[in-house]
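Reading group handout, session on sequence-to-structure problems. Before we discuss, look at one worked example. The prompt was deliberately terse, the way you'd type it at a terminal:

> structure Sulfurtransferase

The input record follows.
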Amino acid sequence: MNPLVTAAWLAAHLEDPGTIILDATLPPVGVTPPIDTHARYLANHIPGAIFFDIEDLSDHTTSLPHMLPTADAFARSMSTLGVADNATIVIYEQQGVFSAPRAWWMLRTMGAKDVHILDGGLLAWTEANLPTETGPVHHAPASFHAKLKHEAVKDLAQLKAELNSQKQILDARSAARFNGTAPEPRPNLSSGHMPGAISVPFTDLVEDGRLKPADKLREYFAGKKVDLHQPITTTCGSGVTAAVISLGLELAGAKHVSLYDGSWAEYAQQPDSVIEKTI
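And the output record:
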C-alpha cells in the first residue's frame, strides 16, 4: 500500500479499532521562541490521535540528537502509548513536511509493518472540514514487539565505508549549509558536506505543504543523477529530515534505502572526518 493516505481514507477508517493515529510534530529548528507543538496538539488534533514525541522517544544515553533507542526501549514506549506493532498506524504533523517521516521511519525500522503518513497533514484534514478535538488522548497499553531492521540504518563506520566506496549519499540540509556558506544550527559544528554527497534539500521535495507526486520526485532525483536502482543512504543535520528523503525515495520507487542516524551532528565532530565546502 502507498505510504501516504488521504484525509478521506483516514476519515473512513477513523473508528476502526485497529487504526492508531499519531501526531509526530517536532518544533521547527531555529525558531525563537520555540514552538510548543505539544500544546498545539492539546489545543487541536485529529480525534483519537496520540502525541508521538520524537524527542522523548529517542535515545537519551547519547549526546547526539534524535538517535534511535534500543529495540527493547522502543517496544516499551510504544506498548505504554497503546501502539501495537500490528496496528494500522497513520502519522501526521500539524503543518508542512518535516518530522512525520522520521516517526514513519522509526516505526518501520523497529518492525511495524502497516505505517502511513497523512498526505497534507492536519491542514488537509481541517481543510476537508473534518472534525478535531482537544485535550490529551490515552490508549490502553498494547503489545509492540520491536525488531530492528539493521539494513535500514547506518552507523558512522558504515557511513565512512560507503563514502570510501563512493556509494550514493543524499544530504537533506539546505544548500547553503551543504556548501559551507551558512552556519550549522548546532554550535561548534562546521558546515560543509561529506565527499561525494549529493545535496537534496528536503524542502525541494515538498510542494504546497505535502510531498510532490511520485512522477515529480522521480524527475527531481533523475536531475540529481540519483540511481534509484542502487543503494542510497540519506543524511541531514540530526536524522530527522533525512527521513523526508527516504520517504520521497520510496514514493519514487527506490528499494534499497538506509538512513545514517548520527547524520551531520555526529560526522562533523569527528576529528578524522573530511569536510568539503563549495565556496
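Points for discussion. First: The first helix runs from residue 7 to 12. Second: The mean pLDDT is 96.
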